[in-house]
UniProtKB/TrEMBL annotation:
Gene3D superfamilies attached to this UniProt entry: Cytochrome P450
Pfam families for this protein: p450
Function: Cytochromes P450 are a group of heme-thiolate monooxygenases. They oxidize a variety of structurally unrelated compounds, including steroids, fatty acids, and xenobiotics.
Name under which the protein is recorded: Cytochrome P450
Species per Swiss-Prot/TrEMBL record: Qipengyuania gaetbuli
GO molecular function: heme binding; iron ion binding; monooxygenase activity; oxidoreductase activity, acting on paired donors, with incorporation or reduction of molecular oxygen
Keywords attached to this entry: Heme, Iron, Metal-binding, Monooxygenase, Oxidoreductase
UniProt record similarity statement: Belongs to the cytochrome P450 family.
PANTHER family (alphabetical): CYTOCHROME P450 YJIB-RELATED, P450, PUTATIVE (EUROFUNG)-RELATED
């Protein structure tokens, strides 16, 4: 425990990122993005409307990667095959993740003129996923012990208890929003425990995650300004936790304490601290939250697979992998080419933006038979790359898998069958891929 509590700064908790973006485009319809190229998969409407499948299928059939000369995010290479993405991820020195070259999303860095217009010196969020070796190695190594198999074994009991208590509290005989009551609640609770974050403020983690993870927000100048104000509030709040932990007589095992006691992370600049917070919050929140919703959606849409799940609970670990493949909670990651190079017959120039569409790779017909069908017995479900591949593979992958497995096991133990029973609203974004609302009703099997 900290020796003394530090006063928390005032932070806002509204409007949500979604509300702000919707309102902006209602008031400024002329600012909506245009996507003249038929294969420009940076358009967010295809994810909100769940119409992305045939576009990527057509692209895969035509080749593993394609140059998109024009988009709201500038020209980029769209890498759509499983093999090509693994190949590029295995060359981290040629295909850089560094924030200094543009980072890990399709977004452009602001030019010096744009920064001057915004009255900012810089708008960068260095984080270890957006660093190259050796900086990446030292910072990742700091937090990795939290996510080892032994770390997971220590956390499983608490995760199971919290999951069971939440499921027992859900209403019966009435429709409710699974995203709000289950997916958000379980993931923000987990994040609060990992950070040692004040429990009563845990919903702030979801609020910050949405504002930092929505790439479209950052492309609208007025909203990007608000976004940065909110991220600075997040940084100030976490700074009070940092100060408290530095007074601890014994180092804690939460992520902030681990950073404080790490040579690789205890001298971070404010931007770097904020960047790593965003990484851990978005990584820990969006991937698991959207997969927890994806579980319910996929089982309801595939009654034959739901029956298998209900009859053969031993399939649950493999079902987790298959649902991660089907959901793919982060649609893309971006790299920047550091030297002219040839990949699969295409010449990629130094400085080119290379976007790895995990969403497409996980539906690659050359790897997965009948890829658009949920199959919880699929023998190679583990070949999905929903967590990335290579040195930047998600550090918290084991924790996400554990949370999803426990959720399925606890649902099965209670013989709970969750039906879609109302509105389904998907996230309108090209980075985070998931559900904003999923109205359901519970029965028993």
């Amino acid at each position: 425990m900290a020796t003394a509590a530090v006063a928390r700064p005032e932070v806002r908790s509204s409007p949500t990122a979604y509300e702000a973006l919707k309102k902006h485009f209602e008031e400024h319809p002329e600012e909506r993005f245009e996507h003249p190229h038929k294969w420009d998969v940076s358009r967010s409407d295809i994810y909100a409307e769940n119409t992305w499948h045939p576009i990527f299928r057509e692209m895969r059939a035509a080749g593993p990667l394609h140059y998109i000369p024009e988009s709201p995010f500038g020209p980029y290479w769209a890498v759509v095959s499983h093999k090509a993405i693994q190949h590029i991820e295995a060359l981290p020195d040629v295909f850089s993740s560094s924030w200094e070259h543009g980072g890990i999303t399709i977004l452009n860095r602001l030019t010096e003129e744009e920064l001057a217009e915004a009255g900012e010196d810089s708008r960068e969020l260095p984080m270890f996923i957006a660093m190259d070796r050796p900086q990446h190695t030292g910072q990742r190594r700091t937090v990795a012990p939290k996510f080892t198999p032994s770390g997971m074994a220590e956390m499983e009991g608490e995760i199971r208890q919290r999951t069971g208590e939440l499921l027992d509290s859900l209403p019966r005989g009435e429709v409710f929003d699974w995203v709000d009551k289950v997916s958000i609640e379980l993931t923000t609770g987990m994040l609060a425990i990992l950070f040692g974050f004040p429990w009563e403020d845990r919903r702030l983690l979801t609020f910050w995650s949405d504002w930092s993870g929505d790439t479209e927000l950052a492309s609208v100048r007025a909203l990007d300004k608000v976004r940065w104000e909110i991220l600075k509030e997040m940084g100030a709040y976490f700074q009070t936790l940092w100060v408290e932990r530095t007074h601890d007589k014994e180092p804690g095992d939460d992520l902030i304490s681990m950073m404080i006691h790490s040579e690789a992370m205890n001298q971070m600049r404010p931007e770097e601290f904020m960047g790593n917070l965003v990484l851990l919050i978005v990584g820990g929140n969006d991937t698991t939250r959207n997969s927890m919703s994806g579980i319910i959606y996929q089982l309801d849409k595939n009654p034959d697979q739901r029956k298998l799940f209900e009859q053969q609970p031993e399939l649950i670990p493999n079902a987790v992998q298959e649902i991660l493949r089907m959901q793919t909670p982060l649609a893309h990651m971006r790299r920047t080419c550091t030297e002219d190079t040839e990949v699969f017959g295409q010449t990629i120039k130094k400085g080119d933006k290379v976007v790895l569409w995990y969403l497409s790779a996980n539906r690659d017909e050359e790897v997965f038979d009948n890829p658009d069908k949920l199959d919880i017995t699929r023998e190679n479900a583990r070949r999905h790359i929903a967590f990335g591949y290579g040195i930047h593979r998600c550090v918290g992958a084991r924790l996400a898998e554990l949370q999803l497995r426990v959720l399925l096991e606890e649902l099965h133990k209670r013989r709970m069958r969750v039906h879609l029973a109302g509105d389904i609203e998907r996230v309108r974004a090209n980075f985070v891929h998931g559900f904003r609302k999923l109205e359901v009703e519970i029965t028993e099997f």
